[in-house]
Amino acid sequence: MSETPLVELTEASRRFVLGGQTVMGLDRVDLRIRQGEYLAVMGPSGSGKSTLLNLLGLLDRPDSGSYRLDGQLINPLGEQTLARLRAEKIGFVFQSFHLIPRLSAAENLALPLVLAGWSPKARAARCASLLDQLNLSERAHHLPHQLSGGQRQRVAIGRALALSPPLLLADEPTGNLDSQSGQEVMHLLESLHQQAGITLILVTHDGALGARAARQLRMADGRLVSDSGAAEGAVPRGEAPCA
Amino acid sequence: MRLSDCLAFAHQALTRHRGRSSLQLLAVAAAVCSVLLLTALGEGARRYVAAEFAFLGKDLLVMLPGRKQTTGGLPPLGASLRDITLEDMAFLARQLPRVRLAPLVVGNSQIRQGARSRHRPVLGTTMTFFTTHKLRLVAGSPLPDVPATQATPVCVLGAGLAQELFAARSPLGQWIRIDDRRFRVLGVFHSASSNLGWQLDDSLLIPVGSALALYDTQALFRLFIQARDGQPLSPLAQRLEQLMRQRHQGNLDVTLLQPDAMLATFSDIMATLTLAVVGIGAISLLVAGILLMNLSLVSARQRTAEIGLLKALGAPARLILQLLLTEALLLTGLGGLLGLAVGYGLVTLSGWVYPGFPLAIPPWAALAALACALGTGLLFAWLPAARAARLPAVASLRGRL
């Protein structure tokens, strides 16, 4: 394959010690994700979805095996570099939104820009265009508790997009929403994938939601047990290769 | 991140947790204020005593009866305590013609003028007392230059007492009664300073001979010796001791004090005491610091999710530390300034209420208190902040905002 994959995990493992016992959060996972893919990671709770997401999002590092993001080997990088890469390359969307309650919608949205040291002027411009894109312009000065769940998640998505990262990681983005708001949020995420070509990784235990993605990964006990796009990516370990 | 954004973020975080922030603010303010007030008390006491002694010149020795010893032990048996008498003074005057001597006999008497009556200190002395104690004659003449032993029924009133007895009238040439004896007023004097507790202005002076007769005694309360033309005091004191020993059959039963040296010693002691008192104040700063640390810990724990989020948004640990420390510095800085304001306010207020005992905050104390507050704030916020900054983002994000 000539094109560099956006994500390339090779035999990546992550162990946790819980109550004196070693638990394999991630067990020798091989995974390649190309630029612009839309994939869903599914599996019961404790199957390693969140560990995988943390790893992909540079919030955690593999104990063994390697991780290349956009061709760059992550393992040896220091905390500062990881933080910078996280800001540039990765947007997070969480189940519980994680908006800062004391900041208004616009301020929450601008937070990555503030942290990255943008000037107030540049921030205001970027913020306005994002709010417009998300249909939140009228809600810009509301505090999170004054917003509906769907609006909050849209603010969180705007925040994830603020620095235009190529990779969007969404952890159960509809888990705390009613079905209609959930639908809206899913449409928004998918339109970002289709129109902006953003690489979207969706973690969910909802099979129907997962089925919308072009590629589905299933996890159990820290291992990748099936990958609908395995032919283009890697062979899932622990499964007999398809004959 | 820009500094202005950092400050704005910290400010928002502080105003959001208003209850906790104001508690911390109060703790810091109280600590800084207590350091200031304690320093002001110490410094005020030092200045007060310095002012009290200042009217006694640098060239003055005080002789008092009895031997004040710091070596301990009982006085030897049979060593009788002898008074200092006018004969002693005359003897010293013959031996040391170059020094000024002022005797002092002190009593408390009923002073009456017409229907007015006051209980006031009566000082029996000579004209020389005006020089040794820097008294200023406001009206009339000073005590007559008569032999010390002669009892003359005249007096010089302190300005305060003259005002009390005669109000606006001139007391000169009037007669007053001290206990049951009549004295004629020769003059009125004013003394710039007070003498540890009682004001000279509230007393009156009579010739020493009259005072000895009035109180039926031979004993002088004090003998003031003023050296002339820059004569060093220590050799003079030794000479005086030697002469008094000679007079008193070989017993040294008087004590000589050097007010100036005492003042210097006292000033040193007060400075040390002030430092000790400031140390106590510093403990309150420490307590405030520990409270601050405790609250910072709670704050960091409550905000783990926020810290995790900041990490996910690309903030490195250093930036998170910077944010938390900015909060702490902002808080202690404001608290410190509040403490300074309250401290200076209280000191100014006390200056109005007790003008006689002026408190003073030395500028170094204000600066040191503020610096200490900032230092404590930084030190005690550092630990929890560094811990929070090191926390792995994954763990932090499990907490909810």
Automatic annotation (TrEMBL), chain A:
**Annotated transmembrane regions:** none
Pfam short name (any one): ABC_tran
Q: Which SUPFAM superfamilies match?
A: P-loop containing nucleoside triphosphate hydrolases
> Which residues does UniProt assign to the signal peptide?
none
Keywords for the protein's UniProt record, in alphabetical order: ATP-binding, Nucleotide-binding, Transport
Transport in keyword set: yes
One GO molecular function term?
ATP binding
Q: Which residues form the ABC transporter domain?
A: 7-243
Protein name per the record: ABC transporter ATP-binding protein
Q: Which organism is it from?
A: Pseudaeromonas paramecii
UniProtKB/TrEMBL annotation, chain B:
Provide the ABC3 transporter permease C-terminal domain boundaries. 280-392
Which positions fall inside the MacB-like periplasmic core domain? 23-243
Cellular localisation: Cell membrane
Please name the Pfam families in this protein's record: FtsX, MacB_PCD
What are the protein's UniProt keywords?
Cell membrane, Membrane, Transmembrane, Transmembrane helix
Q: Which InterPro entries would you find in this protein's record? A: ABC3_permease_C, MacB_PCD, Macrolide_Exporter_MacB
Topology term for the membrane: Multi-pass membrane protein
Instruction: Give TM segment ranges.
Output: 269-298, 319-344, 364-383
Q: Which family does the record claim for this protein?
A: Belongs to the ABC-4 integral membrane protein family.
- State the protein's name: ABC transporter permease
**Annotated organism of origin:** Pseudaeromonas paramecii
